[in-house]
Structures are given as C-alpha cells and as structure tokens.
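Cross-check.
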Amino acid sequence: MAAVREYKFVGISHAGQPVQGTVFAPSRRAAQKKVQTLAEKHGFRPRDVQQRQVYLYKVRHPNGKVVTGEQKAFSAQEIETALRKMGLEVLKVEKKLLNFQRKPPRQDMIMFVRLAANLLKEKLPFDEVLNLLVNDVSSRSLKQVIRDLNADLKGGMEAQQAFMKHQHMLGKFTAYMLGIASRSGNMAEIYESTARFLERQNEFKKSVRSAMVTPTITILVLIAAFIWYVWYIFPQTAGLFSNFGIELPPMTAATLRFSEWMDRNYLWLILLFSGTFGGFLAFARTPKGRFHLHRLLIRIPGIGELLHKLNIEIFCRVFGVLYSGSGDNINVIKIAAEACGNAYMEHRIKTITVPMMVAQGADLVRSMEASGVFTQMALARFRSGAETGNVRASALQMADYYEKETTLKLRSTVETIQTVVAIIITIAIMFLTIISSEIALIQPSSTDIMRLKK
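Predicted model, tokenized:
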C-alpha cells in the first residue's frame, strides 16, 4: 500500500482572495491533480503545492541549554516561526534527508489497539488515551503516528480522515475501523472488535507459520542431501565400476546417468530455478498475480478449505461489527471484503455481490450466493438472519463458529502435514538405501576381474 502524504496548496480566487487547503495523495503528481480538480470545481488558480515533511531542528533555551529534535511541517520557515514564538533561539532547521517509514511491528499494533480498547472502557478521554499510549509504545514509527493523530485531532481534523491518512502504516482495515469509532457512539466496542480481529489474524498466521516452518526446512534439507548424495557421493563409488566397463544394475545405471546429466546442466538448472522462482514472486506481488494465487489457495485440498473458512470468518466478523439494520451498508460489504484477506473473494464480492444489490436491487443473500465464494453454511446463516431481521447477530455467530472450527482443524492439518513429510522422508531414505545396496549386488565377470588386475 502506497504511503499517503499530506500536501498544502495555496492559490488565488477569481476575486483576488487567497485560497489554501490540504489534500492527501501518494505522490506530488497525484496531489497536483487533486488540487487542479478542486481549482476547476471551486474557481481558483493554484500557485504552489508543498509536501509536509520531517525537519530537524536545533534550538537554544533561555537557560542556555541546546536541544535538538524533529518536527513535521510544510516548510522550514513554518518551524522557525513556531519555535521563535516559544521563546527559543533557532540555531538550525534543515530537511531530514533520509526519512524511511517502516511499518510498525504487528505485535505493537495489536498492543496499541488492545490497550486503547481497555482504556476507553474505563471512560478515559481519547486524547488522554493517546497521550498515555505514546509513552508505552516501543515502535518509533507507531509513536510518530500517534503523535500525528493527536495533533490532527486537536487541530480539528475529522477522526476518519486523520486515521485514513496513516492507512499505509496502520493497515486500511484498522485505519477505517478506528476512524469510524469516533462517530459510532461506542468507541470501546469498535476498538475491542478491532483488537480481537487483529489478535485472531495474528494468532492464525503464527500458527500456520509454525506449522509450515519445520516441514519446509525438513524438505529443503532432504532435497539438498538427496542431490548431494546422488550428484557427488554416489558417482564416486558407482563410477569406479563404470570406468572399467562393468555392467551396472538398472537403478544404479540410471542414477549414474542422472548424475552425469546434472554435471552437464547444473548451471542451466540453477538459472531456470532462480528465474522461475523470481518470476513467480514478482507475479504474485502484482494485483493480477495475487488474484490468481488467492483463487488457487482456497482450492488446495485440505489447507485450502481451512484458509477459505478463515477468510469467511473475517468477512463475517467485520460485517457483523459494522452492519446496521437500516441505512446504506454497501460500504460495509466492501470494507468486509477488503478485510477478508483474499483478493479473489474481494473481487467477486465487489464485482458481483455489490452491483447486484445496487443496480438490480437484489437482496443480500441472493447477491452473496451469486458471487460463488461463500459456503452453503454461511449462506444459510445469513438467510436465517435476513428472515428474522437479525443479520448482524447471524454474521457474528458464523464468525464465532468458523473461529472455533478453523482452530481445531488447524491442529489436524498440522498433523497431516507432518505425516506427509514423514512419508516423503521414508520414501527418500528407501530409495537411497536401495540404490546403495544395488552396488553390493554387482558381480564382476572373470573378464572384468582380469581387466581390473591389469
């Protein structure tokens, strides 16, 4: 997700009055396009667009103490003016050349949202919550985000705009949820739901990662050992018989030919493997690649069903939290689709479910069924909720059910993966044992023995 930057524009109206404002865009060119659109709409002539950047400053207090720091501003002059108003002697103000923004660690993000939810339950004012949390967060990037949020909210910016400005750091779903919490009437509930979602997502990712790391390492080591034995060690022994023209058993001869083929083509194989792997990674990072990869992932036997139900669980939980019985819930469906974590499901919901509801006036369940990405159980629960007028409760019940089911099935899937890896290891060891023992069965003829003596 591209970083959203803040730009200030200045201009002059047709009546000669100065005009200024701010826009948010991923680049200066995008900001200039937005400003041009605003200029055409409101009738003014833009003169300059400035990006809000980080500046380093050095000041001297009246007591003689020299202090350094950094601050975001649209220009160095803006910081100098503010510092002088505070009674400080400005020694230096310069733009920070290297200002890399690293995304906050997931664990810090979860702690921030969880602690905020707990403090809001205690009825603390939100600005006080931010002031408390900025001192407890260890991530420098998250500290800066909290400071900016506090400054923007105190400056009168709407909460949703302030949070969405940092969506590249917080994540689009998290920024959206925390942004709408301020006008929801129940901030604590929204923060609690967001914290639970982030914790659940993180727990599942950690479980899948831990379940896959050991088998993956085992398989890679096995492949490396297998290639090393067949390509280097085995020819040292079998090659002795081959050099003297002794007839070799079928498997030994085939393995030796494979080793010789590897000798001739290993460079091309390395290039082919590297190119294929690199090309796959590059393609998987594109929107089209993510779409096709996610479509295939939910169709993999076993693990695909598990991932599919996890995606539906997240969709249902987000939908249940944001859904209201009245009003426009189209945006809620879009946000839930984006949060589910599967690009294929998101595309189907946005291009089939939403248009059916908007253009054709179809009901929620029929539109969801047409997308082809929801299970029959999920559709049945939504249908039941629609009939009883309690769609929100049905969505949350479905989310709770799939949360329990995926947790239990993950353990079973891990055991299955471990069993498959054990079988692969056994087969590899059997193969190596057989081709090694074949050498012991070689019986040179008398002619071969005479040739060896010579």
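The CA atoms of residues 116 and 312 lie 27 Å apart. The beta strands are 5-13, 18-25, 44-51, 53-60, 66-73, 89-95. Passed to J.P. for a second look.
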